[in-house]
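Cross-check.
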Amino acid sequence: MKRIIPIFLLLVSVLLAPVFAGGEKEAAVQEKQIRIAEQVPNLITPGVWDGQAFSLDSSIYEYLVEINPDTKQLDPVLATKWTTEDGKRWVFTLREGVKFQDGSDFDSADVKYTLERTQDPTIGHLKKQDFAVISSIDTPDKYTVVINLKEPRPTFVYLLTDYNMAILSSDYDYAKFGETKPMGTGPFMVKQIIPKESAVLVKNPKYWDPALPKVDKLLIYFVPDIDASVSMIEAGKVDVVPFITPVIKKRLESTGAIKVISPYQEQRFVSMAANQKPFDDNLVRLAFKYTMDPEIISKSVTQTTLGDGSNYCETPIMNSLAQYMEIPLRERNIEKAKSLLAEAGYPDGVSVDLYFASDHPFGKELAQTIKELAAPAGFTINLKGYPRDVYLTQYWLNVPMSITGWGGRIDPSMLLSLAFKSTGPWNESHMNNPKVDTLIDKISAEVNPDTRMEYYHELQQLFYDEGTLVNVQVPYLVAVSDKIVDYKQPLTMIPQYKYIDIK
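Predicted model, tokenized:
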């Protein structure tokens, strides 16, 4: 690998030099530009965007509101005000004077279009289920949107922070141009995209905030290999590399010219498919849970002690969220695990394939640790690692056991509906539990915060007793050149490059 990487870097330099040169070396020297090694994207049009290429999309598009990474509160963006009295009727006041990058005006028609687009059957919008609760949308004037819901959703505004809910122009043909000429109201606009290779974004001269963005250009390399990305930042060819590992963190920090930050924790769901053997039996799921040792997982996977950079639970609620309920960790008990397997009809143990993205941080380490921890109880776990794009497109959602990276949601009800409701489009564990469905519905609709919290606690106890996953929470690590200041990325996973600067 060490001999291959320099060749890769040379190829990158040769292939992308015409794209990033701009033709005028003197002007380029005076420009403030940030170079980013991004993951290779699949689809990038909001609504069908699979969550890769965050730097690209979050710079082109904007949202009605965003999470402030410092205060963890909602900040206004394209909406300046939002109110509701009953959680059922929401009124949004929009920012005036905003233009799309094609020169057209932003107004209430665009918000209405973006929301109604979630229900368009020709799109396959990933937020269709969440926004099916809308009964009607009124636009009494150009800068007011009234959203009427079929039932109360007291945290509805948080749904608008999901990365697939960027506001689109009602006059632009995203079906035709969304993948090649993406266009929004964001601080940067596309100058050039070479699919699967690179993108050049330049400062949006029509941006509504004249003080932003602080840099002139984003140069984005789509790099499939994390080792190549790391070598690029070590060689000074890029300034930002996301999704690095603790081992790489130590290596980079030793250089003195690169800092590694952790804006938040991510989740690695170890999911057991409830519709496939052997995990269709809760006894087997419990047996597996009894083989786990959270301290060993933390040390071997993240090289930290539990609670210091990593966390572990058996529910989909992150330990850092207010809705999390502290449940004593299940002590590792191999004899109990064996007994449960025998009771389930597997006295000689079980063999199961574990699928994961081998090039995604912590994937290989977690898979190997799980395999070794579960083996003494009779679990033969066959590791099936694939590049992330192959894993997601060919195996994810269709395998008996998997490890998938999940970003957090500032409002966990968003993730619950997406991943654990029986009708959820990303229900990787194929959970089909009427009690879980009912509790998710209650959480989504309950206006009283204390009652809603009780439902969250009831749900977590249910997951502990009957659930289909263990949740390993790992640090999201970003390598940044020491010349970069004000890198911001909240739990919504959307990096805010409009604030970034060069010292």
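Residues 1-15, 21-28 have pLDDT under 50 and may be disordered. The CA atoms of residues 357 and 392 lie 8 Å apart. Passed to J.P. for a second look.
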